[in-house]
Design a protein that fits this description.
By secondary structure, the chain is α/β, with parallel strands linked by helices. It is built from 6 helices and 17 strands. Strands 8-5-4-3-2-1-17 form a 7-stranded mixed sheet. A 7-stranded mixed sheet has the order 9-10-12-13-14-15-16, covered by helices on one side. It is globular and about 45 Å long. The two termini are 13 Å apart. The chain binds fe (ii) ion (2 copies). One fe (ii) ion binds next to loops.
């Protein structure tokens, strides 16, 4: 018998809460039907202490979903021994980021996480895939719109080949909740893809990072218009969304509930 609810708890984020270590990264605990699934793992330091604070034994987490390969989502994998890791092909490939000051940073999955990944049973998600009744992983998200996805990401430190982070995936519930990691693919592309593949699902809630920290005013406005027309009623935003973007969306979408949860906060969604 499959539960019809899924509990989503923010475990790792830049914001702090009593007992929770802040860290630049993202990890969410998903609990449904007796299963504990980790959606991303943070950068590495905060996962175990924050699991302890949340009262979750790490060994009870049997499945890990990696939204994409960046270190701030995969670093905590080194502290786990999951039976199964869900990720899209290419998650192990190098990723580099160039900052506004011209400095280049290696943001790939850390070696220790790569070695845990190699020892795990990896399920590569290449297409929209139902991982349990009512829960889908999108697999790689095609860029269907002309949405400006931002970012200055490359495959090598010399910054020659642009990295669109093609392995990025999101999670969709049949009850209409979308969970994203960084949303490098863009929230418009992600929602368009879900509607194309699962048109019978009415998505009303988005939980996750939207990668809008350095978004232009134009992109923020276009995103707000799209979310309104799409019928999004609730945005639960954190990680790389950016405070400016949250404020802009709150202003542009007065009929949408927009909150910024702290680590330890749990919310329930329908499956
Ligand atoms: Fe991130
Ligand atoms: Fe990322």
């Amino acid at each position: 018998m499959v539960s019809e609810k899924i509990n989503v708890t923010l475990l790792v984020d830049e914001l702090s809460a009593p007992g929770f270590m802040p860290e630049f990264g993202l990890a969410l605990l998903l609990e449904t039907d007796g299963r504990k699934i980790l959606f991303d793992t943070g950068a590495g330091e905060a996962l175990l202490p924050n699991l302890r604070t949340a009262g979750i034994a790490p060994e009870t987490i049997s499945e890990v979903i990696l939204s994409h390969g960046h270190y701030d989502h995969t670093g905590g994998l080194a502290a786990l021994a999951p039976q199964c890791v869900w990720c899209a092909p290419g998650v192990e490939l190098p990723h580099f980021s160039r900052h506004a000051d011209g400095s280049v940073h290696d943001i790939s999955m850390p070696e220790k996480s790569l070695s845990v990944l190699k020892k795990s049973k990896i399920t590569y998600v290449e297409n929209f895939t139902e991982i349990m009744p009512g829960l889908w992983l999108t697999g790689p998200i095609p860029r269907l719109s002309d949405e400006d996805c931002g970012g200055d990401f490359y495959r090598e430190k010399e910054c020659i080949s642009v990295d669109i982070i093609p392995e990025e995936q999101a999670l969709l519930t049949a009850g209409g909740t979308l969970i994203s990691g960084c949303c490098h693919a863009g929230i418009i592309n992600t929602l368009e893809f879900c509607r194309k593949v699962r048109p019978e699902i009415t998505i009303h809630t988005v939980i996750g990072g939207l990668h809008l920290r350095r978004a232009s005013e134009k992109r923020l406005q276009e995103t707000a218009v799209f979310l309104r027309n799409y019928g999004i009623k609730h945005l639960s935003l954190f990680h790389c969304t950016g405070a400016n973007a949250v404020t802009a969306l709150q202003k542009a979408l007065p009929d949408c509930r927009i909150d910024t949860p702290l680590p330890g906060e749990k919310q329930q969604s329908e499956i």
